[in-house]
Amino acid sequence: MKLFDQINVLTAVAALVFFLLFGDAGNARLYVYGAFFGAILLQYLASQHLKEKHLIDSLTNIILTTTLVYTTGAYESAFFPLYTIPIIIIAAEQHLKGVILVCTLASIGFGSTLIFSPQAHELTVFDHEIFETVSKIILFFVIGLVVYFMGREYRREKIQTAKMIASLEAQNTELQRARTEISRQEKMAAIGRLSAGIAHEIRNPLSIIKSSTDLIQSMELENLRCRVLTAAIQEEASRLNEFINDFLRYSRPVKLQLEQRDINEILHQVVNLAQETLPPHVNVIETYDPHLPLTAVDRNALHQVFLNLFLNAIQAMPHGGQLTLKTRHITHRIEIAFIDTGLGIPRKNLSMLFEPFFTTKDEGTGLGLAIAANIISEHGGRILVDSELGNGTVFTIVLPIRDITEDGNIEDSPVSDTVSTHSD
Ligand SMILES: Nc1ncnc2c1ncn2[C@@H]1O[C@H](COP(=O)(O)OP(=O)(O)OP(=O)(O)O)[C@@H](O)[C@H]1O
Ligand SMILES: [Mg+2]
To answer: H/E element holding 403?
Structure first.
């Protein structure tokens, strides 16, 4: 049973007991029976899940309290504070009209005990009984309004506290993301320094090997086998040199060469380039926004990012599938999506995707996405991942639209965090 129902039952029992013990059988009898009957009817109505259940409960309570007060000394009854119960409950519910209504009903109920009391005809306006009754009625309103306004203040503070907690939580998440991003960038910088050192150490002996074999090749070698072998050394040395150059390009901090470019065009070039290597049963669909504005980007760097995302998607569809490339313009941003119907990414891998050297491929370096995240971050954008295991993956790049001004500066509207992941 709800609090209000319990209060009503207690009030009804008290009213009945007092009526039976001390009730004035005279003209009060009709009123008391009527009140009980009315209260039971109202209680039934209130139990029908009415929208205004609490108001009906209050009305029932006021009728029962009036009965109790009337049978225990009317306006002098010690039970008059019971009127404040429905007033406080409604005020705590933050229902101002309800507070006024319940206070008015309580005043009418309490006032009627004076009007219908046997002494009523002897009283004049200046009698202290009238003064006392009016004071008590004013007290009902004061209590109702004080509780209402205090409750409002409390509720406001509660809402403010909830807002503050939500904002703190958002800041905390933002901080965590920034921390992950910084740690990823630090790792990339360390790898860059390390590879630069290694490259330097390897390049010197390599150039000696290369120049020595060049010299041997320029000699008139009698032995054919010797010529073939030196050619092989030369070729392998060049390949190694090429690899080091590639690796350095890969892991050095990116220095962007910004120009106003059409993203659709860069994407299409990547598709054309990779078309040759496309395995059978892989279908590529290009759905570009024809009204995509130009934006300040490093063409080569973006080409590298798109190529890696393209190859990753193709490699994730060993049994064929569909890769959709989409672009769209949203207010100050450009969104580029690579949507594949491949294997998807297990949830446990999502947080590591952008870590340098994270790979699930035998031949992979695991640097593709780490570098992509770096490049996109340098452009003031971010990469989002959404993946469903077994159904495919969507990588979305969000780039701010930036212009190169006449004095060579960039007009910027960057989006925050670089990387965010989601998986089902
Ligand atoms: N579209 C995709 N679908 C499923 N898994 C993906 C997808 N893209 C990336 N991955 C996962 O993320 C890992 C890291 O990708 P990343 O491009 O950084 O390196 P890689 O592709 O393994 O190596 P590399 O880029 O040097 O060839 C991949 O090994 C793969 O497990
Ligand atoms: Mg890759």
So the answer is: strand 403-404
